């Protein structure tokens, strides 16, 4: 596994391998020793036996340098020394986004390519926002478990009888469908 240069530099500053730093940080934030070891040494574990993995983990946990690192990282976390990135992202609606784009576009130099692109984004956003319509009254259809209890089939058979068994036209079928109430649960 390739670690970032920042992590490598921090490990070098502490005088420990990168895996020790990763394992210690994971344990500080609540991972168990086995899980932290598994994550830190995931590339090596493919070739290690279970016994070697447990022996190596226990060896690392018994090292004074690792225990000192673990205590140092715990202290840094509780004192706020370890940088943690917590960002509260507040979602804004399409209208607010459109206003922001428009404000940015208005502050750009006139006749610039970027200003034209921003106005295009503004127009696209408005178009997309208008084209998305939410159906507030969805159609709910409850189908029976048996065809013989279906109101559509009953209405179709009745229309067939009235029509002397002839094939029904599409208009007649539409009348059948529109005349049958499908939104109520059917009784058995």
Give your account of this protein's structure.
With 188 residues, the chain is mostly helical. Helix content is 60%, strand content 0%. The protein has three domains: 5-79, no CATH class; 94-130, no CATH class; 141-188. It contains nine helices and no strands. Helix 1 packs across helix 2 and helix 8 packs across helix 9. The longest helix has 19 residues, at 113-131. Mean pLDDT is 77; it is low at 182-188.
Question: What would the keywords be for this entry?
Answer:
single chain; 188 residues; mainly alpha; 3 domains; 9 helices; disordered C terminus
In brief:
By secondary structure, the chain is mostly helical.
Rounded to an integer in angstroms, the radius of gyration calculated over CA atoms is 34 Å
Roughly what is the average pLDDT, rounded to an integer?
Answer: 77
What share of the residues does DSSP label as strand, in percent?
A: under 5%
Uncertain runs are 182-188
Helix content: 55-70%
Total domain units: 3
Give the class from helix and strand content and strand pairing.
mainly alpha
How many H/I helical runs? 9
Based on DSSP secondary structure assignment, what is the total number of beta strands? 0
Instruction: State the end-to-end CA separation.
Output: 62 Å
- Could you say which overall geometry the principal axes of the C-alpha atoms support? elongated
The arrangement of helices and strands along the chain is: HHHHHHHHH
Largest sheet: none
């Amino acid at each position: 596994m390739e670690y970032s240069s920042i992590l490598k530099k921090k490990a070098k500053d502490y005088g420990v391998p990168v895996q020790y730093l990763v394992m210690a940080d994971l344990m500080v934030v609540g991972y168990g020793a086995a899980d932290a070891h598994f994550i830190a040494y995931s590339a090596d574990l493919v070739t290690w036996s279970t016994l070697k993995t447990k022996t190596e983990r226990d060896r690392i946990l018994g090292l004074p340098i690792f225990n000192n690192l673990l205590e140092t990282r715990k202290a840094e976390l509780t004192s706020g020394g370890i940088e943690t990135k917590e960002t509260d992202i507040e979602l804004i609606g399409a209208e607010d986004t459109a206003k922001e784009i428009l404000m940015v576009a208005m502050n750009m130099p006139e006749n610039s390519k970027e200003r034209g692109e921003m106005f295009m984004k503004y127009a696209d956003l408005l178009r997309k926002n208008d084209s998305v319509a939410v159906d507030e009254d969805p159609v709910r259809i409850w189908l029976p478990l048996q065809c013989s209890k279906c109101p559509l089939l009953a209405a179709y058979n009745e229309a067939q009888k009235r029509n002397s068994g002839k094939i029904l036209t599409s208009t007649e079928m539409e009348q059948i469908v529109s005349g049958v109430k499908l939104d109520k649960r059917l009784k058995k």
